[in-house]
Amino acid sequence: MTVESFLITGAALATGERADIRLEGGIIAEVGLIPDAAGATVVDADGLIALPGLVDLHTHLREPGYEQSETVLTGTRAAAAGGFTAVFAMANTSPVADTAGVVEQEASLGLAAGFATVQPIGAVTVGLKGEQLAELGAMARSRAAVRVFSDDGFCVFDPMLMRRALEYVKAFDGVIAQHAQEPRLTQGAQMNEGALSGELGLAGWPAVAEESIIARDVLLAEHVGSRLHVCHVSTAGSVEVIRWAKARGIDVTAEVTPHHLLLTEDLVSSYDPRYKVNPPLRRAEDVEALRAALADGTIDIVATDHAPHPVEAKQSEWDAAANGMVGLESALSVVHASVVANGLLDWADVARVLSAAPARIGRLRGQGEAIAAGAAPELTLYDPSASSEFGLERLAGRSVNSPYLGRTLPGRVVSTFHAGYATLLDGVVQPSDEVARHASAAGGDRG
Amino acid sequence: MRHLLSTRELTRDEAVALLDIAEDMAAVQQREVKKLPTLRGKTVVNLFFEDSTRTRISFEAAAKRLSADVINFSAKGSSVSKGESLKDTAQTLQAMGADGVVIRHHASGAPYTLATSGWIDAGVVNAGDGTHEHPTQALLDAFTMRSRLHGTASRGKGLDGVRVVIVGDILHSRVARSNVWLLATLGADVTLVAPPTLVPVDTTGWPASVVYDLDDALAGSPDVVMMLRIQAERMHGAFFPNSREYARTWGLDDARFSQLPTTTMVMHPGPMNRGLEISALAADSAQSTVREQVANGVSVRMAALYLLLSGERGEA
Amino acid sequence: MARIVLAQADVQRALTRIAHEILESNRGSDDLLLLGIPTRGTVLAKRIAAVIQRIEPSAPAELAGSLDVTMYRDDLSRSGIRMPSPTEIPATIDGKTVVLVDDVLYSGRTIRSAFDALSDLGRARAVRLAVLVDRGHREFPIRADFVGKNLPSAASERINVRLVETDDVEDHVSIEGSPE
């Protein structure tokens, strides 16, 4: 089968200039004024912004083990719907991604599905139990070439284990992505600890439980000269600690989720489990600090922490409900609403925090490259003008636990191109069989 | 009133009206025929996910004295997983035609979830949810205070200027929360006394002052001292060193009790730990309202059920 | 527009006549108890009792009380929430002649509720009914023993009884709405 080529016309690049973009032969063949389609499928991108394909450093794909919530296929369809061309799949599957076998299986499921590059994250400790190191080297050397390791969902709490993990992954330029949560301070925690938790009678998750772990970890990273990544930073205090660490020259990067940039703990007053997430939604002051930190570079990236759950896991009383929200499909609109609409970030910044920087932190080649001739053919077309109620039809994964349903959000992802072919075209996620055929035709090149 | 989920949402007028109706209900409890036909044909389900015989029989008596049919549904120990059971149970009750559901649940907010989920049309009464609220307990406490202070002239009155000291595990107490909101709404002046570990980290939004010294609080000769039950297992969470130290520092012992004016009411939501948070002398004194609280509980719950279940469905 | 059908003096005269009729029918004030149905029935019961006590100084001091029937109504789920009023029974009703007093007799449903309420309180020797206005349209086999004024009316009309104690205006009874 011949590989389809595309001519995207009249798109606005992140820099603001208008250009036509031709995808052909597995690369971006040409960017500029292209008068002749030359047999390519023409995609009218007038009024749309072309961004490099988005890269999510923090996705839960749930496969293997929790396929009722999400699979690699459904999760990457959600990714395509949200403009993502690569996702880092967290390790808390069943079995846990703590061996070369599991991470290779995940990577190959991603390749076969073809909707996005699936880059597995390896567990730091065996079974995420925090007791002994997983086979980090074997996962790094495997075909999945794991570079990011995380026990996300759990904190690598033992300081000695954390130190060893930070040191050990230096051997292959890996990074430990820490879920910063002091377990003893958060036993039974249900929401941000503060005035509201006291009123609602929900056990508090204090900011200090996050901040104290980040403080410890940046000092450990400094001591052993390692690279540290902090998952889902959620408090103003954490921002201060990271800012201090960066000023000191410590090699730390940090992510914030879209929901922590937009939503606040007040939503918990409804006891609606859609708003239950870990770390919990925080105060408006925290949201402000996180936005400012993303704007000034203290926080490097936005990562979704896309966490699908079946309907029954959210149709319950608050305590019994699962933590987490789906986020891939809504991420760009939420970033738009929270930091672009108010001028804190421009679209070039968005390309950095949602594409270039996460690819760099995760050492993922062929992703996050600026749109230019010769770059990998990964890109997203976004319509910033539309504003609409976020409805079920915007969700493309298996689960619907989105906190944004019924909320008006700006913008809409129109098309996504991965490996030179469309995974989302004119707002329609492309048929799975077609995408799989393209993927196999593209030669299974993981880039 | 569609549901009674928290005292926080009650206006002063609503709270006073409920207490006034409870006065009428209390009068009925003095008659030979204690039953009213008011809720004939209505079905009230006592849905208890947590054991509480006292609260359950109080609601049961209230519903029966209004001639409602009562179904007791104890979900505790059922094999259904926690999350599913609330929804499944609600749908079962809906199918059975429940008009009112009295719910006791270990999870804060569960009554709220039941009332807003759309799983059931019934009016929902919160009979205690986790560490959140226990509105009928606060209402019966307020009723008891009002009756002691104003007797037969209680009707229409609030608790303006009444000084109430609440002592104990504020952090985990749904009784304390419901009382703080309600008593403040009714005009009382509330002081909370507890070890700092048992007070929420931020109570700036609470209409109450917080102090740590019980003797200081009692020196002000309050009108009411309400002792909360302290659960011994709290010491495992390092909230206080041991029960002896707790009793000595925050217990209403004989010495503290004897310093109080004889007009000061001593209240306790029960069940009491005699010798821990309250001495036997204080608990059994004429100043103690513990038994009145139990009797008033039925009247207040009758009033709540009346307000929820009479009138047209769907009315605000 | 509302049309006045009983002015202040008419109301007073009617109550005085009812007081006389009650005394006559009961052959004095022995074992007599007037229970008004809140809110205005209670006021009327007190007024009639005052007249009786003037006529017969030997009449018991606690002649009038109040009987709330809210909890006994058969239409609770057909209207908004009704706030009950206190029931105040000055003495046992056992063996008494109880005169129920209400402002307007209409369908008879309120009085039917009152029978239920009364029977929960004890066993009266006899139960009588006094009303200021009887406007007809009965839905129960109930009739008043003592009537201030018969006022045939259309169902579409409203009869308003206003008393100084409850309404802060001079006593009067008016009728409003179209007779169609």
From TrEMBL, chain A:
Catalytic site positions: 305
The UniProt catalytic activity note for this protein reads:
(S)-dihydroorotate + H2O = N-carbamoyl-L-aspartate + H(+)
Tell me which residues make up the Dihydroorotase catalytic domain.
49-236
**What EC number(s) does the entry state?**
3.5.2.3
Keyword set, alphabetical order: Hydrolase, Metal-binding, Pyrimidine biosynthesis, Zinc
Q: Name one GO biological process term.
A: purine nucleobase catabolic process
Q: Which GO terms describe its molecular function?
A: allantoinase activity; dihydroorotase activity; zinc ion binding
**Could you confirm whether the keyword Metal-binding appears in this record?**
yes
One of its Pfam families is DHOase
Which residues hold Zn(2+) 2?
Answer: 152, 179, 232
- Cofactor entry: Zn(2+)
Q: How is the cofactor bound?
A: Binds 2 Zn(2+) ions per subunit.
InterPro entries attached to this UniProt entry: DHOase, DHOase/Allantoinase_Hydrolase, DHOase_cat, Dihydroorotase_CS, Metal-dep_hydrolase_composite, Metal_Hydrolase
SUPFAM superfamilies for the chain: Composite domain of metallo-dependent hydrolases, Metallo-dependent hydrolases
Associated pathway = Pyrimidine metabolism; UMP biosynthesis via de novo pathway; (S)-dihydroorotate from bicarbonate: step 3/3
The residues the record assigns to binding Zn(2+) 1 are 58, 60, 152, 305
Record-listed substrate binding positions: 60-62, 92, 278, 309
Q: Which residues, by range, are in coiled-coil regions? A: none
CDD domains per the UniProt record, alphabetical: DHOase_IIa
Can you quote a single GO CC term? cytoplasm
- How would you classify this enzyme at the top EC level? hydrolase
Assigned protein family: Belongs to the metallo-dependent hydrolases superfamily. DHOase family. Class I DHOase subfamily.
Q: What does this protein do?
A: Catalyzes the reversible cyclization of carbamoyl aspartate to dihydroorotate.
Record-linked NCBIfam families = PRK09357.1-1, pyrC_multi
The protein here is known as Dihydroorotase
- Source organism per entry reads Agromyces terreus
The coding gene here is: pyrC
UniProtKB/TrEMBL annotation, chain B:
Which Pfam families does the record cross-reference, listed alphabetically? Answer: OTCace, OTCace_N
User: Which residues span the membrane?
Assistant: none
The Gene Ontology terms for molecular function here are: amino acid binding; aspartate carbamoyltransferase activity
Q: Where is the Aspartate/ornithine carbamoyltransferase carbamoyl-P binding domain?
A: 2-146
SUPFAM superfamilies per the record?
Aspartate/ornithine carbamoyltransferase
Which pathway does this polypeptide act in? Answer: Pyrimidine metabolism; UMP biosynthesis via de novo pathway; (S)-dihydroorotate from bicarbonate: step 2/3
Q: Any keyword Transferase?
A: yes
Give me the residues that bind L-aspartate, please. Answer: 82, 174, 229
Domain Aspartate/ornithine carbamoyltransferase Asp/Orn-binding stretches? 160-308
EC class of this enzyme?
A: transferase
Known InterPro entries for this protein? Answer: Asp/Orn_carbamoyltranf_P-bd (IPR006132), Asp/Orn_carbamoylTrfase (IPR006130), Asp/Orn_carbamoylTrfase_sf (IPR036901), Asp_carbamoyltransf (IPR002082), Asp_carbamoyltransf_Asp/Orn-bd (IPR006131)
Give residues annotated as binding carbamoyl phosphate: 54-55, 104, 134, 137, 270-271
Any one GO BP annotation for this protein? 'de novo' UMP biosynthetic process
Q: What is its EC number?
A: 2.1.3.2
PANTHER family attached to this UniProt entry? ASPARTATE CARBAMOYLTRANSFERASE, ORNITHINE CARBAMOYLTRANSFERASE, MITOCHONDRIAL
- Subunit note: Heterododecamer (2C3:3R2) of six catalytic PyrB chains organized as two trimers (C3), and six regulatory PyrI chains organized as three dimers (R2).
What is this protein's function? Catalyzes the condensation of carbamoyl phosphate and aspartate to form carbamoyl aspartate and inorganic phosphate, the committed step in the de novo pyrimidine nucleotide biosynthesis pathway.
Q: Which family does it belong to?
A: Belongs to the aspartate/ornithine carbamoyltransferase superfamily. ATCase family.
Protein name as catalogued = Aspartate carbamoyltransferase
Q: Which organism is it from?
A: Agromyces terreus
Automatic annotation (TrEMBL), chain C:
Q: Which keywords does the record carry? A: Glycosyltransferase, Transcription, Transcription regulation, Transferase
| Ranges where the Phosphoribosyltransferase domain occurs | 9-147
Q: Which reaction does it catalyse?
A: UMP + diphosphate = 5-phospho-alpha-D-ribose 1-diphosphate + uracil
Give the EC number. 2.4.2.9
The short sequence motif called PRPP-binding sits at 98-110
Q: What are this entry's molecular-function GO terms?
A: uracil phosphoribosyltransferase activity
Any keyword Protein biosynthesis?
no
Zinc recorded as keyword: no
NCBIfam families of this UniProt entry? PRK05205.1-3, PRK05205.1-5
Its biological purpose is as follows: Also displays a weak uracil phosphoribosyltransferase activity which is not physiologically significant. Regulates the transcription of the pyrimidine nucleotide (pyr) operon in response to exogenous pyrimidines.
What family name appears in the similarity comment?
A: Belongs to the purine/pyrimidine phosphoribosyltransferase family. PyrR subfamily.
What this protein is called in its record is Bifunctional protein PyrR
The record lists the organism as Agromyces terreus
Q: What is the lineage of its organism?
A: Bacteria, Bacillati, Actinomycetota, Actinomycetes, Micrococcales
